[in-house]
């Protein structure tokens, strides 16, 4: 049985396979509408979510499966009575054919997988990882014709606590000659473990201080919000790297602007209509990628 825990588990042939299923689902959704009929899939969210939970739940329904859900699992599940995550998962895995879980503990998905009899889908584990977000990020690059070998990507914003950045880095490292530029306040810099991971996998990491240091024909700018809920010290207040019209116009027609959303001030609304601003498209792609992932994992294990 396969669990979806971390981007480290993916290779390029799996990614090709998954994206071809997502492409086919987008083109022929009717052919998949009963493909998981009779299955029950749980979505358990111990942290807030809009896109991830609702796109997973829409994906479940569009494949003909049924969904049981705890939207606010920290208050509304037996976690509030002191039950361990492992015990909760042992129980829910007896009711379902798959469990989608978001949790504040970095190791939650791994812990869940160790005791689950059904596939676990990591929908975000603390500041650690968010692999299904990275799959849809990469799928969005694929949909606009980007090739991943030699790709150049700037990750911007909160590189310290941003789990979407941490996972995306690991996913991009699957490919050859990848160059990642990091743009953050010094106290929100990318942790060394990710820089080392890139180096070990043959990718290049270049730390920058401003948009003007990025090549104007960079493939992707991936901006992120400050993860305010993950720290308390007010002296950590980071500098924002705002992409507005003026900033975006420094870059070529081929550069695309992505963001996992929700955004705060780091992407000005004056770029929303720019054809290179793809964050809403990216969020929509999430449903198709999650459909492909559920379908492939639950049916083919
Ligand atoms: C991200 C998350 O939860 O990590 N959101 C999402 O899943 N689309 C990014 C964020 O919250 O900043």
Q: Report helical residue fraction.
A: 25-40%
Instruction: Tell me the number of helical segments per DSSP (H or I, 4 or more residues long).
Output: 10
CATH hierarchy, class of the largest domain: Alpha Beta
Mean pLDDT: 96
Biggest beta sheet attributes: 5 strands, parallel
Bound molecules: N-carbamoyl-L-aspartate
What's the number of domains? 2
Task: Going across the biggest sheet, name each strand in turn.
Answer: 7-6-5-8-9
- Strand proportion, as a percent range, falls in 5-15%
Give the topology, please:
Elements: H1 12-27, E1 40-45, H2 51-62, E2 66-70, H3 73-76, H4 85-92, E3 98-103, H5 108-115, E4 120-125, H6 131-143, E5 152-156, H7 163-172, E6 179-183, H8 192-200, E7 204-208, E8 220-223, H9 245-248, E9 256-258, H10 279-300
Parallel strand pairs: 1-2, 1-3, 3-4, 5-6, 5-8, 6-7, 8-9
Helix pairs in contact: 1-10, 2-10, 4-5, 6-7, 6-10
This protein binds N-carbamoyl-L-aspartate (NCD).
Would you kindly provide a written description of the structure presented here, covering whatever features stand out?
By secondary structure, this protein is of the alpha/beta class. It has two domains: 141 residues, 3-Layer(aba) Sandwich (Rossmann fold); 133 residues, 3-Layer(aba) Sandwich (Rossmann fold), CATH 3.40.50. 35% of the residues lie in helices and 15% in strands. The chain has a five-stranded parallel beta sheet with strand order 7-6-5-8-9. α4 crosses α5. The chain is globular, with a radius of gyration of 19 Å. It starts with 11 loop residues before the first helix and ends with a helix. The mean pLDDT is 96. The site of N-carbamoyl-L-aspartate (NCD) has 11 residues, from α2 and α7.
